[in-house]
Every structure is written in structure tokens, then in C-alpha cells.
Amino acid sequence: MAALFTGKVLMANREQDEVETERELGRALENKVLLLYFGSGQCPQCRQFSPLLKDFFLRLTDEFYVERASQLVLVYVSRDETEEQQSAFLRTMPKRWLAVPFGDTFKRELELRFAVSEVPAVVVLKPNGEVIVGNAVEEIRRMGPACFRNWQEAAELVDRNFLLAEDFDDWTRRSITDPIRRLKYKLDKKTEAKNKERKEEGEESS
């Protein structure tokens, strides 16, 4: 997913921090369902939908609601008329949201790429950048957080339960296939141990 933002800058919500290096973007975006939220704090339809999206996101990622945050990241792509309007809107939204900086022409590129003509729009993407849902606004309104399970399955995410707890902090710095390889290695070791036990039992019985 970081490939979509290669050479681009994302802003951490309510902070001046820029998330722009390949490593930082990889850590923020890899192995997660990505929501691109096209909206505006001044649009009446967005003002109705944004609180729903905020609640949706918090119920999947905030420790008040869940023990472990879902593999979900959201990037706000605004149509606000001024930087102050964008900042004011983001101050009312979750801190974990990322945003395309105000005035960045990359916003127009994203609109064209994902055929976004009206707001609000929520484009749901797999970690590899493939589209899961072209606009999930109605799905979120209708199903709430329950629709994330469908996206998770469609995205074929590597479940973080596969990772050893002590490895997880360092995992995002490595290839996304590492946990799969480690899991296969552990399974191979188990199979090898079982085969050895069977062989020994066979020798004892003979």
C-alpha cells in the first residue's frame, strides 16, 4: 500500500508530523485495510456522515471498545476550501487518522484514480492497492463496524496473532511475507517433530 504514496507526504492528525519516508509509510499502512475518505467539513452530507465514520473507526481501533485495534487505517482527502477549515474538521476526528496535506495536488490524482465525483465517499483498498469497495458510505451507514469483517477477508490480511509478541514491533520493517514464512517454519518444525515421534514409536513397537 505504501507504493500508492511513494514520494508523497501524509500528515498525522492534529500534529505537524509528516509521515513521508518509505519506512514510516510502510509501518503505517502495510497489512491493513485502507480507507480513503473524500469529504469536507462544510458539505451538509459530509456533516451527517462524518460522525458515523468517526464512531465506526473508533469502535474498530480504540482501546475503549476493542482489546486490539483492527488492521485499519484511514486517510482523509479533503475538499475543504481553506487549510483552516481542514484543520478544524480534523480536530473533531480521531487522532489516528492521516491526511493528505491541504493544497497537495495529489488529492486530485486520488479523485481521478478512484473516480470520486461526489462527497462523502469512502474508497476501501487492500494492502496492495486493489479496490475492495468503490464507495462504502452506504455500507457503513447500514452495517456499521460489522462490514469490516468482509473487507478483512477480501483483503486477505495476515492475522497478527500469527506473529510472536516479541517480534511484532519489528515486523513492519521487514517484508510482509515474513510472518507467513515464520508461520510455515513453525508448522514445518511441528510436522518434523511429529514425524520423529512416530518414527521412534514405530521402532519401539518393532
Summarize the SSE layout with pairings.
Layout: E1 10-12, E2 18-19, H1 22-29, E3 33-39, H2 44-61, E4 72-78, H3 83-91, E5 98-99, H4 106-113, E6 121-125, E7 131-133, H5 137-143, H6 147-155, H7 168-171, H8 178-205
Parallel strand pairs: 3-4, 4-5
Antiparallel strand pairs: 1-2, 1-5, 3-6, 6-7
Give the strand tally: 7
What gross morphology would you assign? Answer: elongated
Give the % helix. 40-55%
Q: Oligomeric status of the shown chains?
A: single chain
Number of helices: 8
Order of helices and strands: EEHEHEHEHEEHHHH
Kindly provide the name of the CATH class of the largest domain: Alpha Beta
For the biggest β-sheet, the strand order reads: 2-1-5-4-3-6-7
What is the CATH architecture annotation of the largest domain? 3-Layer(aba) Sandwich
Q: CATH H level of the largest domain: which superfamily?
A: Glutaredoxin
Q: Strand fraction band?
A: 5-15%
Report how far apart the termini are: 57 Å
- Could you tell me the mean pLDDT? 81
CATH topology of the largest domain: Glutaredoxin
Helix-and-strand structural type: alpha/beta
Nearest-angstrom radius of gyration? 21 Å
